[in-house]
Design a protein that fits this description.
- The chain is α/β, with parallel strands linked by helices.
- It has a single domain (about 15-179), classed as SGNH hydrolase (Rossmann fold).
- The protein has 6 helices and 4 strands; from the N terminus they run H-E-H-H-E-H-E-H-H-E.
- The protein has a 4-stranded parallel beta sheet with strand order 1-2-3-4.
- Strand 2 (about 90-95), helix 4 (about 100-125) and strand 3 form a beta-alpha-beta unit.
- The longest helix is centred in the middle third of the chain and has 27 residues, at about 55-85.
- The protein is globular.
């Protein structure tokens, strides 16, 4: 990051999409850009649905649809609050976890598609750029544990943010994916 720039971290570990609204009250007046990475904890909160019994595939899809609808409502409201600050904004898709058991990894990736679909849809509806963290943090070394980026992963995320700031025309209100 150039010396004359500064970054302010407002993320709170364990926060949900619904908590971001409160966090926007702490955005510094001199902030020039906002980067929102939210939804991973919502996915974790809803992980219990993966253990529920179901009598049919339709029942499973119905339950997943309910989760998706609730998340979309909350995410849309959160993003509108962030955009009301009138600062150039980018949002992030949720990175995949690194589960040690292949079956659990496959289920987690499939379940996250519900949340990432909402995030990507909102990026296009609002014309904000998207950082696809699934493609940024794509190696085991990018993770400190099953669900958190390592220093190497954080470095890759920071480089992607810098590239986005330098390359994206926020005035175009055009969604563009960065990874």
């Amino acid at each position: 990051m150039p010396d004359e720039w500064k970054a302010t971290l407002r993320a709170v570990d364990g926060s949900l999409v619904e908590d971001v609204r409160q966090q926007t009250l702490e955005v510094p007046d001199d902030a020039t850009h906002l980067f929102v990475s939210a939804g991973g904890n919502n996915a974790i909160l809803n992980a219990g649905i993966l253990q529920q019994k179901a009598s049919s595939s339709a029942e499973v899809l119905d339950k997943l649809g309910d989760v998706a609808n609730a998340f979309e409502s909350n995410y849309r409201e959160m993003l509108q609050t962030v955009l009301s600050l009138k600062k150039p904004t980018a949002i992030c898709a949720i990175y995949y976890p690194r589960m040690p058991e292949p079956f659990i990894q496959k289920i987690a990736v499939a379940a996250l598609s519900i949340f990432n679909d909402v995030i990507i849809k909102q990026a296009f509806l609002t014309g904000v750029p998207l950082i696809d963290l699934r493609l940024v943090c794509n190696e085991d070394s990018d993770y400190a544990n099953e669900i958190e980026p390592s220093e190497a992963g954080g470095g890759k995320i920071a480089k992607t943010i810098l590239r986005l700031v330098n390359e994206h025309n926020f005035e175009s209100r055009r969604t563009e994916a960065f990874f």
